[in-house]
Q: What sequence folds into this?
């Protein structure tokens, strides 16, 4: 929910910040918005990817790294989560492939992401944007770089299959 909001969020009295975020996410889903996808392995949830049309992520407008590159209609990928027990097993890569298929099925033609690009491995818990090499393997190309370790990458999607 962090990127869907643009400023400080009032948390109702008697509710924790995580509870408020869960309720806000549920309201989105109940209203018909798909805020992301859940990945399963052997019937157990192991991954999450948050994506949608850029305009659904208010915080991106003000971000020095993720602000719009141009006025093209894009879908944005803003967050990955992989369960600790399956990290290092290509879950994020599978989630990315599924997200691209989903975005394509919803009519998206251009998908954008904001990965981390460092020469050394980063701690797993700080990689919620994904790493640049994963996006490159999926056919994304860099279109901007506003900080040394934070490129903006894009992939053009073809029409829906079948």
A:
């Amino acid at each position: 929910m962090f990127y869907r909001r643009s400023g400080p969020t009032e948390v109702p009295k008697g509710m924790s910040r995580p509870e408020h975020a869960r309720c806000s996410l549920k309201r989105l889903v109940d209203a018909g918005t798909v805020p992301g996808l859940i990945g399963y392995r052997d019937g157990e949830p192991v991954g999450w990817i948050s994506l949608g049309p850029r305009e659904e992520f208010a915080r991106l407008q003000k971000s020095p790294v993720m602000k719009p590159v141009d006025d093209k209609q894009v879908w944005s990928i803003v967050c990955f989560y992989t369960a600790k027990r399956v990290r290092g097993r290509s879950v994020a890569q599978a989630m990315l492939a599924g997200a691209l298929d989903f975005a394509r099925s919803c009519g998206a033609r251009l998908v954008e992401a904001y990965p981390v690009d460092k020469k050394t491995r980063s701690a797993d818990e700080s990689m919620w944007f994904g790493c640049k090499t994963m996006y490159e393997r999926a056919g994304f190309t860099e279109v901007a770089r506003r900080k040394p370790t934070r490129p903006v990458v894009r992939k053009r999607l073809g029409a829906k299959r079948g």
Notes: The helical segments are 17-30, 91-105, 132-137. The mean pLDDT is 87. Residues 91-105 form the longest helix (15 residues). The domain at 34-156 is CATH 3.40.630.30 (Aminopeptidase).
